[in-house]
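Risk register update: the risk of archive-format incompatibility is retired. Evidence:
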Amino acid sequence: MLARTACAAALIGAALVSVFGLLHGWWHVNRPKAARFSVRGVDVSRHQGDIRWAVVAREGGTAFAYLKATEGGDWTDPRFSENWREAKRAGLLVGSYHFFTFCRPALDQAEHFLATVPHDPEALPPAVDVEYAGNCHEVPPPEIVRHELMAWLDAVEDAIGKVPVIYVTAEAHKDFLQGAPLKNPLWIRSLLGEPKVQWLFWQYEARGTVKGIDGLVDLNVFIGDPAALGELASGRAGHSFGTPAIRER
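Archived output:
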C-alpha cells in the first residue's frame, strides 16, 4: 500500500514538473520581439544586491534602468545612490521611481522623493509605482487614491519639470486610473502579453535574467527607438510614443 502511494505521489510530482516546464517555456516564448521593441531596460531595488553595471550595459542588452529611490514618506532604498552613480557611469539612461503607499499623505511622499533623487536634466522622467502588492492593508476609496496620486504627480512635475510616468499593474489600473483623464504616460506590468492600453514602458517579465545581475530581475521595453528614449530623457519628447490623453490640472 505504501509503495503504491509513493508511486502515485511520484507520478503526480512528475506531471506537475512537466506542466510547470511547459508553462515556463511558454512564458519565456511570450516575450516582446526585438524587431519591434529594440530598447530594453531593467528596474531594480536593493533586492538585486550588488549590480555590476558595466556588465549590464556591455553584455546585458540593456539601454536604460529605473532605480527604486523611495517608498512612502520616510524610506529610502539603501542601494539607490550607488545604483544611480554606477548605472550612469556605465552609460545607461537612468530614472528613479517611488513606491506609492495608500496610507501616507501624497505630499509627504513627494517631499521625501524630491529630497532623495538627483535633479538631473538628462535623467528619464521620474516614475511612481502604484500597486497592491506590498502596500498598506487598508485601501482608501478609489477616488481618494486617485486624488492623492494626482497630488504626488503634480508636486513632482512642478519640482523636476518632467511629466512623471505611472507604473501600474492591471488591477490597480482598473481600480484607480481607468477612465481618468491623464497626461502621464503609463508603464504597464503585463506578464501575459502586450498591454491592451497605451503605454510608454512595458514590464513583460518579473523573473528575468541579465548579465551583471545575480538572481532575478524585472525586464522592460520602451515603445520607441534609442533616439526617442534620449529625447524622453532630455525632456524634448513631448507627449508622443502612444501616451494617454492629456489630464487637465
